[in-house]
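Incident review: delayed structure delivery

Summary: a single-chain prediction request sat in the queue longer than the usual turnaround. Root cause was a stuck worker, restarted by the on-call engineer. No data loss occurred. The affected request and its eventual output are reproduced below so the record is complete for anyone auditing the incident later.

Affected input:
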Amino acid sequence: GSTSLYKQAMEYLNSGSGVLDVAGGSGHISMVLGMMGVHSTVVDARKSVGKLPRSDRKIWNRAITNNKRASSVQVRVVSGDDETAPSSSGLESYCLPVVPFQAFRGWFGVVPTGVDSTFRHPDHDTLPVCDETSDLLVRASAIVALHPDEATGDIVRLAVHRQKPLVVVPCCVFARLFPDRKLTTIHHQSPEMESSKVVSTYDDLLQFLKGQDPSISQTELPFDGKNTVLWSTFD
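Output delivered after worker restart:
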C-alpha cells in the first residue's frame, strides 16, 4: 500500500550518506528535505554553501529546536485489495523529526576550467572535488539539483555512471564553456551519414542530457522560469 511505499522511500533516501543537493547554494532544497525528514548534503563551491539567509535560518533553527516538522506529511492509505476504490482510501499523517543537513564546499565531478570559474572562485584550485570515487557520492542515495549551471553535465554523467536516482532541473546552456557537447543527427534517407552540432540552445541541452541514458525522463514542474525536470531511478 501507499504507507509501506512511503516508508520504503524514506528509508532509501536516508540510507548511506543521504541525498546530494548539488550546486545547492545556501541550502534551500536541503532545508525542505530536512523538513521532510530526509538527510542531505549541500555540495557547492561558493563560500556561502549551506548558509541559509537570516529569515530562513530563523525558521530552520526554530524547527530544529522544536525537533518536529511545522506541517505533517499526509500519505494516502488504501484498505483492502482495491487500490483504485475511492471509498476504501484515506489519509494518514506523519510527523517526522527535522533532519539537519550537511555542507561540503567543493566542486562536483571535476575542477572547471576557464575564466568564468577563476573569476567567481579565486581559490578554485584549492577546493576539494566530489568525484566518482568520493565516498560522499559512492554512498549517496540520490542526487538532486535545481538550476545547477555549469555542474549540470557532470551531475547527469556521474548519476548515470553510479546509477544514482536523479532529479535535475537544468537552466543555463553555457555553450561557449562546453564546446565539446555535441548532438549527433542520423539522416533518415542515408542512415550511413550523420552530422553533429554543438549544444547551443536549451532544447539542445535537454536532448543532450537525456541522451546520456535511455531511462532519463522529462517532466514539467508547476513554477515559473526553467521548470523542466529530468529524472531517473535507473531501475
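Verification: Helices lie at 2-13, 28-35, 54-66, 115-120, 135-138, 152-162, 202-210.
Action items: add queue-age alerting; document worker restart procedure.
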